[in-house]
Amino acid sequence: xxxxxxxxxxxxxxxxxxxxxxxxxxxxxxxxxxxxxxxxxxxxxxxxxxxxxxxxxxxxxxxxxxxxxxxxxxxxxxxxxxxxxxxxxxxxxxxxxxxxxxxxxxxxxxxxxxxxxxxxxxxxxxxxxxxxxxxxxxxxxxxxxxxxxxxxxxxxxxxxxxxxxxxxxxxxxxxxxxxxxxxxxxxxxxxxxxxxxxxxxxxxxxxxxxxxxxxxxxxxxxxxxxxxxxxxxxxxxxxxxxxxxxxxxxxxxxxxxxxxxxxxxxxxxxxxxxxxxxxxxxxxxxxxxxxxxxxxxxxxxxxxxxxxxxxxxxxxxxxxxxxxxxxxxxxxxxxxxxxxxxxxxxxxxxxxxxxxxxxxxxxxxxxxxxxxxxxxxxxxxxxxxxxxxxxxxxxxxxxxxxxxxxxxxxxxxxxxxxxxxxxxxxxxxxxxxxxxxxxxxxxxxxxxxxxxxxxxxxxxxxxxxxxxxxxxxxxx
Length: 476
Known about the structure:
With 476 residues, the protein is α/β, with parallel strands linked by helices. The chain folds into three domains: 36-294, Rossmann fold; 298-393, Fumarate Reductase Iron-sulfur Protein, Chain B, domain 2 (Orthogonal Bundle), CATH 1.10.1060; 396-475, no CATH class. 53% of the residues lie in helices and 11% in strands. The protein contains 24 helices and twelve strands. The protein has helices at 8-16, 19-29, 32-41, 46-62, 64-77, 88-101, 113-117, 120-126, 136-144, 160-171, 179-196, 222-228, 246-260, 315-318, 323-326, 337-348, 350-353, 355-358, 365-369, 376-389, 395-408, 411-429, 442-445, 458-475, and strands at 81-85, 106-109, 130-133, 199-202, 206-208, 213-218, 232-238, 242-243, 268-272, 286-292, 434-435, 450-451. The longest helix has 19 residues, at 411-429. It is globular, with a radius of gyration of 26 Å. The mean pLDDT is 92. Residues 301-331 form the 4Fe-4S ferredoxin-type domain. Keywords: 4Fe-4S, Iron, Iron-sulfur, Metal-binding.
């Protein structure tokens, strides 16, 4: 599978000028963050749960081999089968083999970012199996031959007009702007796909080692139909989704819904434990779990291990000013936003994804809202370090940093220049206190004024602050 280099800077320029996209992103900024804040405010123990979730994830990662083996044992015990996949190619081949064994011509799919990661749909189509996305957002994107731009709201970059246009074009129906009518239209089109599919493929929010169960959480119910109606159910997920017990799973479910959509709980929380038993009224005859590594085991014990705690809630991107300005497609691959800026360089290489960890204001909001306290800015800095070490960063940036380092090694000269620069900018800005243009700063001043420094330099303020502390200490 060829992975193209994400053209973040070029894509961002296009996104900023896209009126329709900016309208859609405005809906994001006014939606998820406020709902999350309200949900958290109603839960006094939320911060305590975050600590517990972080610690539990750390424990699980430290004993990942044990819990994965326990998970496989219990899946097998209940009549299922686990397929281990080192990379995307092995995962695709395993799923295709299952489909061919079932003589499947059509498969229904519940939303799965992992299937996007391994380009599963394209692979199945190339081998004579037609995948049908059943999540409404994913279904719309499939009709448009488009890709998700968000983890939990894959079509968030679209507006109602976009959906109306594609439904009318692909379904051959009259155009309507009534959301309820469009929803009903999608139901009617998908119903026959649910009934006729030979194989159902879903992702998994968590894999429970204690019982060998997988769980998916949805608000549409398409996941239930995808995994219960076909005769074969395939789960494609990654090794970092395992949790020790059902009780542990409920901890993450309490955090996931509140962090993602601001709900107390998602509408459907569906556990699968093996194929149907004799007493079951419905369910698949076969149950398969494809566990994908794809470089994740290499993250254990490194500066990026904390990324394995991610529960894919999307809170980081919902609150990110960069994502909120350019959307998910600008990131150029499957995982957008701050979490993608950390995960993507690992999965496709820092040489291909170097712009992503640099696409951050480092405001720290992503870390502050993460339900499992992932230090995303810290890990983005680590990627910047590796990019610099490999001489992959832009020449101008490296030259500027080299010039800065020459002064930084000479403290007296650095302080003198800092004072001179501060005074010069104050003088140039005049009474307004800002500059509309400045040589070598067009990347900033082309879009906004540059505020002039106020007060003394950092070193002057630090010295003054330390002096005040000593003075107060002497008075006690």
